[in-house]
Amino acid sequence: MGRSLFLSAPALIAAVFVPSAIPAVAQDFGQPLVIAHRGASGERPEHTLAAYERAIDQGADYIEPDLVATRDGVLVARHETEISGTTDVAERPEFADRRRTRTIDGHTVTGWFAEDFTLAELRRLRAKERLPALRPTNARHDGLYQVPTFAEIIALVRAREAETGRRIGLYPELKHSGHLLAEAGIDTVDLLLRELAAAKIAPDDPIYIQSFEIAPLRRLDAASDYRLVQLVAAEGGPADAPDMRYADMVTMAGTRRIAEYADAIGADIRLVIEIDGTPSGLVSAAHAAGLQVHAWTLRKENAFLPPSLRQGDGDALRGCPEKLWTLLARTGVDGVFTDDPAIAVAARAGATCPA
């Protein structure tokens, strides 16, 4: 989730809205799903089995793997096809000649790309924390974990379901599907459907499939009955529909068009809450069109929170995401993506900010 390949990390919502006064005791504004954004990525390097397992232990309803593909057609979990920000590939001299400059969805990106590696080669790399300045504790885990395949994530979920006796949902995102198909001949839609079939994951199982692009979702809608989620950001538009803006997609008319092929909208928090912290109207419009709304992303660090929800000085310090949860729940959202499932689960149960 998120398009941080093209956005500077933190400060995604910091100056966007100033919440109105929130009661000290949490109110019952519903029970949104807790969706573990890249696993418990606030506590472990993102998109590692350790992050997913920690999210499951913390009570997340769904875990969210971003999916890209290897050269030999295996779906793996990375935030982007460019992998130098989340692995140690830049420190591996044997792969120095794999460094490339590519244009992805209109943006020039230089680095190492998953589609240039076989799975066996990717296995030689180790994951690292993407935001070490904000999450130095996570960085202590650098070098410990491999890049997991989607099949391994499914196996983890099934093992933990057997251990815990509860259902654990999957919420995969197809990243840059159009680019991978056009530039590398890799069809991630087809790969995903094959893997789901092989794993016997049915549309009525707890699974959502998401994309910022429109074409992959329309293909999935035509080929299957899985629940589909159109992602929308606060700026820009879908890479495969250059004349379309996300802002137009979240109007009453826009949500009705999304409902033709999708079941939910995955929306940047800035599209869900107004500057004063009140509901924007997106949830009402989406619900009227028969769509759910899942908001992204709830994070604990001051860097990602508006000024009124920060605590202490320093971007890496813990602020008060519990109040942001309450604001989101008040809008009627059906789910919330979070880097910190334990905090979200507690907030859903009524927890307030620690003193």
TrEMBL record:
Gene Ontology terms for molecular function:
glycerophosphodiester phosphodiesterase activity
One BP annotation, GO: lipid metabolic process
For this entry, the protein name equals: glycerophosphodiester phosphodiesterase
Q: What start and end residues bound the annotated signal peptide?
A: 1-26
According to its UniProt record, the EC number is 3.1.4.46
Annotated keywords: Glycerol metabolism, Hydrolase, Signal
- Which InterPro entries would you find in this protein's record? GP_PDE_dom (IPR030395), PLC-like_Pdiesterase_TIM-brl (IPR017946)
Q: Which family does it belong to?
A: Belongs to the glycerophosphoryl diester phosphodiesterase family.
For whether the record's keyword set contains ATP-binding, the answer is: no
Lineage, top-rank taxon, reads: Bacteria
**GO CC term (a single one):** periplasmic space
Return any one Pfam family short name.
GDPD
Q: Which PANTHER family match?
A: GLYCEROPHOSPHODIESTER PHOSPHODIESTERASE GDPD5-RELATED, GLYCEROPHOSPHORYL DIESTER PHOSPHODIESTERASE
